[in-house]
Amino acid sequence: MVSVTASETRSRPFLPAAFRNAFVDALAMVAVLVLAGLAVFLFGGAAMQRVVTYAAIMLTAVLGLQIFSGNTGIVSFGHAAFVGLGAYATGILTMPAALQRTALRDLPPFLAGHELSFFAALAVVLVLAVLIGLLTGTPLLRLSGSSMAIATLAMLIIVYTLLVASREITRGSQPFYGVPREVGLWTAVVVASIALLAARLFRETSFGLAARAAADDERGAAAVGVDHRTARLAAWVLSAVAAMAAGAMMAQFLGAFSPRDFYFDLGFTLLAMLIVGGMSSSLGAFAGVVVTIVVVEVVRRFEGGGVVLGFQLPVLFGLTQGVLAVAMILVIWRRPTGLFGDRELDLLRRSESASIAASAEPPRRAGAGHVAADHLSRRYAGVVAVDDVTLSFDTDSITGIIGPNGAGKTTLLNMLAGDVQPSAGSVSIGMPVGKASAFRFARAGIARTFQNIRIFPRMTVLENVVVAARQVEPDLAAAEAAAMRELARMGLEAFADRPAAGLAYGLRRRLEVARALALKPRFLLLDEPAAGMNAVETAELVAILAAVRAERRIGVILIEHDMRLVMNLCERVVVIDHGRVIADGTPAEAQTNPAVVAAYLGSRTARAHMDAKTD
Ligand SMILES: Nc1ncnc2c1ncn2[C@@H]1O[C@H](COP(=O)(O)OP(=O)(O)OP(=O)(O)O)[C@@H](O)[C@H]1O
Fold first, then answer.
1. ABC transporter domain spans which residues (predicted)?
2. Are residues 298 and 423 in the same domain?
């Protein structure tokens, strides 16, 4: 459990808490793998050693898939293609030259006669994997969600077709043979161990955090400065590296193979293993491989028929794939997050040793600055949501935006946050942000919360805030300490290690504010921050916002229907009706403005709200 201390620890930790925890988790899984290797090495026969070697190779490939699909939430059917490319590249690079002259007579000269050792070939394959990852990822990741998943399927088919068509290099659909079989148990165990470390640690890097945040809520992630395309590309490239490393080992493990070995069957097996274990964690990938290999080894014995309890079984062709398919369906049905859920081992997080001190460093104060809307309009097929609005907001002030339902308040706020593009006019935030997009606005100091809360439910409460802190603080340990400080401010430190999904409604709203503040913003844009809160919670929120403003001198712009909150907290009130600004002044002026009363306060209840005096 994370504990908070009031002051920052004197000695800086060797590694940020998240990495220490990840490292220990990975070491625990590596220990199990090494012990399994040792057990079959000492006590198992050659057949058992081959099973564990194969399991370690598959583990490397499944971890590759997990790095991408587990962190981004996008299923990939294409990773078998990476395994195939790694296998063929290794086969060509390591095949003895004499054999090449007979088996691959038409091999282009630049590919011929290298005769590399396995590890030299692996190094080349890894470089190749980065290039192939960048080349395939850049166009693929322009798509989103299910279209991206379908595109990975297309990639699998394209690579298969290329392997079959490139006869001079691959022998087409004929078996590619003559690859030296240097990869044994320990090579596979070592490479799989490195893949385990990489997969477990990647989760905690800023790319891993960003990819997971975007998987949970893409708009919410952009609002805390996450560039999801870059994060996904990083995950894709690393996953290609792991999958191609698995392919390199597979080539030398099998010695002979054909394109069919890296097609739908393998793609399905990799996915089945990951889904059975649990897609979202490296623990899931690890467990999935162990469970499915054990099941497959047992089932395989019955595939060719045999006698069980006196009964003669028929030959059951495809029994293993069938059992895997049923296992996958059962898991998806009964346990959608896989056998091992979507949490890592988190060995250190469970103990006191992972305490993170809240940063004592005072957060930066916003300098003078402004956010301005210049003749801003936004139309939606026939509806003019915002109509020619010109407004300017300064730091060190709190402005309330009020107006009837559907007046255009949220649309205006979305444009000020770079989340919605104006149909006409422009937004200036006091510094250049290049192509306007929400993540660039967030990094430039425009933080926001949403009317419908957009936290990252599958991440912990602390991770929710660290994602934001990392966008402005490259040092992870410092980002953790800053995130802890914001959690403590919002009274959430006791929940730091819990999944955010478990928070009650009011606490989720607070978490969203803590997350926004971790961006060290110049402006904080809040869309109905008190919605759904009771009077006590609202009063606490008002006190927190007033304290934040006093401490940091930031500009706060909030949309709110709770007039008591607006009148108590805001120095300026902007009233919007039918997309236009109809009043802009002090709360007292708004209360007595006849246009406001006429346009906004038709009903008696609303008038009663408006008449609420400041406490
Ligand atoms: N994505 C969209 N597509 C089509 N119409 C939209 C879209 N977003 C907003 N609108 C329309 O624009 C108008 C203004 O909506 P907006 O949500 O900005 O108002 P609001 O003042 O925030 O309302 P509320 O107080 O109910 O949240 C409404 O008529 C709404 O239906």
1. 371-603
2. no
Domain co-membership, 53 together with 126: yes
Query: 310, 334, 358 — which closes off a domain?
Result: 334
Same domain, 377 and 282: no
DSSP per-residue string spanning 374-442 = EEEEEEETTEEEEEEEEEEEESSEEEEEE-STTSSHHHHHHHHTTSS--SEEEEE-SS--SS--HHHHH
Give the CATH number of the domain where residue 48 resides.
1.10.3470
**Hey, is 308 helix, strand or coil?**
strand
User: Do the beta carbons of residue 74 and residue 59 sit within 8 Å?
Assistant: no
Backbone angle region of 325, left / alpha / beta, with phi > 0 → left and psi within -120 to 50 → alpha: alpha
Look-up: residue for tokens 């090494």? Answer: 34
DSSP bridge partners of 307: 312
Number of alpha carbons in the 13 Å side-chain half-sphere of residue 23: 8
**Domain boundaries, position 223:** 27-334
Total domains, the chain:
2
Return the pLDDT at 366: 66
**Residue 19 reports pLDDT greater than 70:** yes
Cβ–ligand 1 contact at 460 (below 6 Å): no
Ligand 1 contact, 409 CB (< 6 A): yes
pTM, two decimals, is 0.90
Q: Is any ligand 1 atom within 6 A of the Cβ of residue 411?
A: yes
Report the range of poorest mean pLDDT among 57-71, 446-460, 559-573: 559-573
Which range among 111-125, 153-167, 347-361, 369-383 shows the weakest confidence by mean pLDDT?
Answer: 347-361
Contact 8, 472 (CB under 8 A): no
pLDDT digits (tens, 9 = 90+) for 474-484: 888 899 999 99
User: Closest residue (by CA) to atom 16 of ligand 1?
Assistant: 408
- Of all protein residues, the one whose alpha carbon is nearest to atom 24 of ligand 1 is 405
Within this chain, do residues 69 and 174 fall inside the same structural domain, yes or no? yes
pLDDT at 534 over 70: yes
pLDDT tens for residues 359-377?
766 666 667 778 999 999 9
394 shares a domain with 302 = no
What does the DSSP 8-state code read for residue 364? Answer: P
Give the CATH number for residue 572: 3.40.50.300
Q: ipTM greater than 0.90, yes or no?
A: yes
Residue 452 lies in a domain: no
pLDDT over threshold 80, residue 5: no
The answer as to whether 14 is a domain residue is no
> What residue owns the CA closest to ligand 1's atom 4?
380
pLDDT greater than 70 at residue 383: yes
> Does the Cβ of 378 fall within 6 Å of ligand 1?
no
Instruction: Verify whether ligand 1 is closer than 6 Å to residue 383 (CB atom).
Output: yes
Statement to judge: residues 301 and 185 lie in one domain: yes
What are residue 306's phi and psi, to 5 degrees?
140, 180
Average per-residue pLDDT in the chain?
89
pLDDT at 604: 44
Residues 62, 121: one domain?
yes
Q: Whose CA is nearest to atom 12 of ligand 1?
A: 385
Same domain membership, residue 263 and residue 147: yes
User: Among 411, 525, 562, 575, which residue has the most ligand 1 atoms within 8 Å of its CB, making it the best to mutate?
Assistant: 411
